[in-house]
Amino acid sequence: MRSSGRNSNRNYLGAGNSRDDRRQPATGRPRPEERRYGQSGGPGGSGGAGGSGGPGGQGRKKQRPAPARSREYDAQIEERNRARHDKPAVRLPKTFGEQEGERLQKVLARAGLGSRRACEELIEQARVEVNGEIVTSQGRRVDPERDEIKVDGLTVATQSYLFFALNKPAGVVSSMEDPEGRQCLGDYVQNRETRLFHVGRLDTETEGLILLTNHGELAHRLTHPRYGVAKTYLAAIQGPIPRDLGKRLKDGIRLEDGFARADHFRVVENTGKNYLVEVTLHEGRKHIVRRMLAEAGFPVDKLVRTKFGPIALGDQKSGWLRRMTNTEVGRLMKEVGL
Questions:
Q1: Which residues, 6 or more positions from 52, have their beta carbon under 8 angstroms from its beta carbon?
Q2: Which residue out of 143, 203, 251, 315 is catalytically annotated?
Q3: If you write DSSP's letter for every residue of 224-280 in order, what string do you get?
Q4: What digits encode the pLDDT tens for the residues 232-270?
Q5: 203 a catalytic residue
Q6: What is the rounded CA–CA span in Å between residue 39 and residue 36?
Q7: Model-level pTM?
Q8: Is 117 helix (H, G, I), strand (E, B) or coil?
Q9: Contact criterion met (CB below 8 Å) for 293 and 124
């Protein structure tokens, strides 16, 4: 009985082994994870992938080609693809997208107020304001074309605007072009990408300060009588002159087109009969200073404009063109409420 039990146990183990043996195919074909496809000879080493070269003469079944799609179906797929790609772009929040505008210190540096570090110090000192609000943070972004930027109360001119001061010589016509071919203001601003125009006029024989810019609103306000921007002239006349000449000019001189009044008058220099007088007025009528002094009995030998609003001619040489500083432009804008 014991031996039969041992035999039965041995038979049981043998039965288990035979069960595992039955898992292997009788033909000796490899398991699925051991098979290789796409190679010549198939899993058994002979025959193609779709042939019958495997062991036992049986290989993989040959796949049928996919049926051809109709042109109408291809057209529908193309339309769906186009519709998917033609959808409007999704606007991402500014946190994820590209931030708008430029950094404030970069705009200030480009306007000529110093290096970026110096402009950052201006912001830290609470000297910069944007649209009436004082800025103290360095990360502020602005649009130079739309935002009003001021430093110490003066408007900062953006890079898109140009401002020049010219000491016009005598004999130069106050126009950008002259059909008669005479020397004009345009001869001093050639090779400029931006078209400039002059602010007001000076007589052909009158020398001195004249402004050139492409800022239309500023030019309009500087020449409009409503804003009353003062202009100062030095006139060479022959004396002697009476003491009440200044009072007569301030009270008003009657001209053919109405009264003309001076805001200020003083004698700058006197050598014998030669007088150099200074006249300040806010009117801009043609030949106004020459006509006023001539009506008072003192024709002008030479006339030079030395000041236009807050901009002074200084020691700028005749025929020289210079770019105005940002401070000067800011004072001009403040003069006319910009």
A1: 58, 59
A2: 203
A3: -TTT---EEEEEEEES---TTHHHHHHH-EEETTEEE--SEEEEEEEETTEEEEEEE
A4: 999 999 988 898 898 999 988 888 888 889 999 999 999
A5: yes
A6: 7
A7: 0.57
A8: helix
A9: no
